[in-house]
Amino acid sequence: MDVPDELDKRIISELRKDSRKSVRDLAKGLGESPSTIYNRRKRLEERGIIKNFTVHLDYKKIELAYVSFLLFKVNLDHEKRIRDVASELQKLDSVYEVHIITGQYNIMAKFRTNSPEELSKLILDQINSIKGIIEIETFLVLETEKEENDVFNPFKGIPTQ
User: Fold this and answer.
1) Which of 44, 97, 129, 160 could crosslink 50 through cysteines, CB 3.0-4.6 Å?
2) DSSP states of 74-118 as a string?
3) Which of 127-134's residues contact partners 24+ apart within 8 Å by CB, and which partners?
4) What is the pLDDT of residues 69-125, one digit of tens each?
């Protein structure tokens, strides 16, 4: 396996902070030549380590401030039922994460809506029609103390300068 080396990790760390940063600015900040940074970034993309460049949203400003986690218990009448339900959940516009989990529930999903009423409508009108779901437990997030998806750095401790 072609594991990222120290320079790759430093490039990734910088791009996690600002994915719009130019090759020239990356090179300057990392003390490397622009051609080295360009080739490294291209290689990270080709290897699938960098999947895409994205934006970080202020969900309140786009009226998706209500976060909820739903746990789903699935009828295990056939071996692929959990994956089928997970696949159907992924099709919903309001879903942001879908995880197959251990424990008394089989699936956990993260949703963003503009109100608890919208979540209720989503559950009653769309989720309840998904074949195989036999129980749903809903958790509405009151406050988010930490959400690392926007700033998570898998290479903490690696100097970037």
Assistant:
1) 44
2) E--SSTTHHHHHHHHHHTSTTEEEEEE--SS-SEEEEEEESSHHH
3) 127/70, 127/89, 127/92, 130/85, 130/88, 130/89, 131/84, 131/85, 131/88, 132/74, 132/75, 132/77, 132/81, 132/82, 132/84, 132/85, 133/72, 133/73, 133/74, 133/75, 133/85, 134/73, 134/74, 134/75
4) 999 999 988 889 999 999 999 999 999 999 999 999 999 999 999 999 999 999 999
Domain locations in the chain? 6-46, 66-140
pLDDT (tens digit, 9 = 90+) per residue, 13-42?
888 888 889 999 999 999 999 999 999 999
Its pTM stands at 0.70
The whole-angstrom separation of Cα 41 and Cα 52 is 11
* Class of domain 66-140 (CATH, top level): alpha beta
Q: Which residues pair with 67 in a beta bridge?
A: 112
